[in-house]
Specification:
Layout: H1 2-8, H2 13-27, H3 31-34, H4 39-81, H5 88-116, H6 122-143, H7 147-178
Helix pairs in contact: 4-5, 4-7, 6-7
């Protein structure tokens, strides 16, 4: 290795140390290279890694649900202020943000329920059906230019549904996964 260093004329002390360590490693293979692990030890390592992954996934699922609860408050505020917005561009941007948030609600609940192996509660089923109905009515009201009904859905019904997700369905999902 010193020949290599002389050939390339390495002056940098860090590179020199790395090369010295590499030369030492090549001359003295590590114990892991000399003695492969027994199959039982490999299985044990794999089981340990799977357990850690499962624990980390559950922890991430719980964190996602707690964050979703806070986010639902924001969605309620956005929904309630859309009817009062006079700037068409801002109203459309807020409406798109609201729809993306509802999509996030759906995706988060589905994914966390799967990770936590939790069953869908009765409240969750009712809120899901109610949310679908509200979104269907909202789409229809928008298409028929029924502004009064659209505004009522955005001011009252949708925020109420999202609040119930926050106060009932999400906590039930968390509790059912704990047991």
């Amino acid at each position: 290795m010193s020949n290599t260093r002389e050939t390339f004329q390495i002056e940098n002390p860090i590179v020199s140390d790395v090369m010295d360590n590499l030369a030492t490693e090549l001359q003295n293979p590590s114990r892991a290279q000399r003695e492969p692990k027994q199959p039982e030890a490999l299985v044990q390592d794999l089981e340990s890694a799977e357990k850690k992954f499962e624990d980390d996934s559950r922890e991430l699922a719980f964190e996602s649900l707690y964050t979703l609860q806070m986010y639902l408050s924001t969605l309620c505020r956005v929904s309630a202020r859309i009817p009062d917005e006079r700037d068409e561009a801002v109203m459309k941007a807020d409406f798109n943000r609201l729809l993306e948030g509802i999509e996030l609600l759906n995706e988060t609940v589905l994914a966390t329920r799967e990770v936590l192996k939790a069953r869908k509660s009765n409240d969750e089923q009712l809120l899901e059906a109610d949310l679908f109905s509200i979104l269907t009515d909202l789409l229809e009201a928008n298409e028929t230019s029924n502004i009064l009904y659209r505004d009522q859905l955005l001011r009252e019904y949708l925020p109420q549904n999202l609040s119930e997700w926050k106060e009932k369905a999400i906590p039930q999902l968390i509790r059912s996964a704990d047991s």
